[in-house]
Amino acid sequence: MPFLSQTLARVKPSPTVAVTQLARELAAQGKDVISLGAGEPDFDTPDNIKSAAIAAINAGKTKYTAPDGIAELKEAICAKFARENGLSYTPAQVSVSTGGKQVLYNALMATLNPGDEVIIPAPYWVSYPDMTLMAGGTPVIVDTSIDTGFKLTAAQLEAAITPDTKWLLFNSPSNPTGAGYSWDELKALTDVLLRHPHVHVMTDDMYEHLAYDGFAFCTPAEVEPQLYDRTLTVNGVSKAYAMTGWRIGYAAGPEPLIAAMRKVQSQSTTNPCSISQWAAVEALNGPQDFLAERAAAFLRRRDLVVSALNEAPGIACPVPEGAFYVYPSIAGCLGKTSAGGAHIANDEDFATALLNETGVAVVFGAAFGLSPHFRISYATSDEALAEACRRIRVFCEGLRA
Asked: Considering 223, 255, 285, which residue would you say is the last residue of a domain?
């Protein structure tokens, strides 16, 4: 319609949200659907965190707060960064928002001018390029590959930087691949950034606590302290603490940037939910022992899914270092026809036919900027994963040239 924003015309709805909603609708119609599209832990929020929220309600802590977070939560975030990442921040360097997505959005809105470039390695979380576009910037997509473990190399980063580059937007462990950068791999990237002082780093560390096989999480400002004043370190309670619906994300960075992000938030949503903030205080300050227990469960599920998918003809599934996703290649399935008569020309065709013929909902790789792949979230029960993988294998076995 002519009165709609031209900027909005450049932006796509979130494909992961669309797949999850379609799966819900099919299930509501009585169809047997296994949804592997949502990046959401199936575990419940821990009881101590829920109790803290109830206590906050009973204590009347239900009013407006400071736009970007209560002092108690900012203190807890500073303590978390010091304890787990060796990073020293003051509360004035911390911003709390309605989920990690708003943190990223606020930062991009606060910093991008027309012509500013944001380097985004692909595959990427679906919202990175579209948020960049909404903020008036230009996404610069750098393709990685399954051969390099879906990791950006120092040479690729060097080649992508121009005088107009403002941000490197970086995610480890990654959604959608689960790829995690080691200390040495990150150091190679930070060495490049040291040569380009006009480039800042926005690091999405949401899957920090979901790391496997001895992989040691690290974050850019920790690896290279000289980048401290050029780095916005983003995290949240959604994934590790199973608090997706509570909507609390946070970041720490240079005080002028945090102040600018506060200005954006003060004119959009204002403060995050007060009750969720008090729950997040308990999440960060309370017992952390369950994190290892849940990571062990995700590791078991990862191994189940990787093993099963690699038995399906035409699929090659690498082993991710973290998060709760796998990103298998379907290169061996292209050009074939399914048992139901669907021609598989690309990964969207594959995902559509898989859902229609087997009831398994996955997200096609083009949504994340790199084909031919699809993403599975293994943040669901072992039984559902085993059955879904069985259906995928049968589907692939039915493909014909």
From this structure: 285
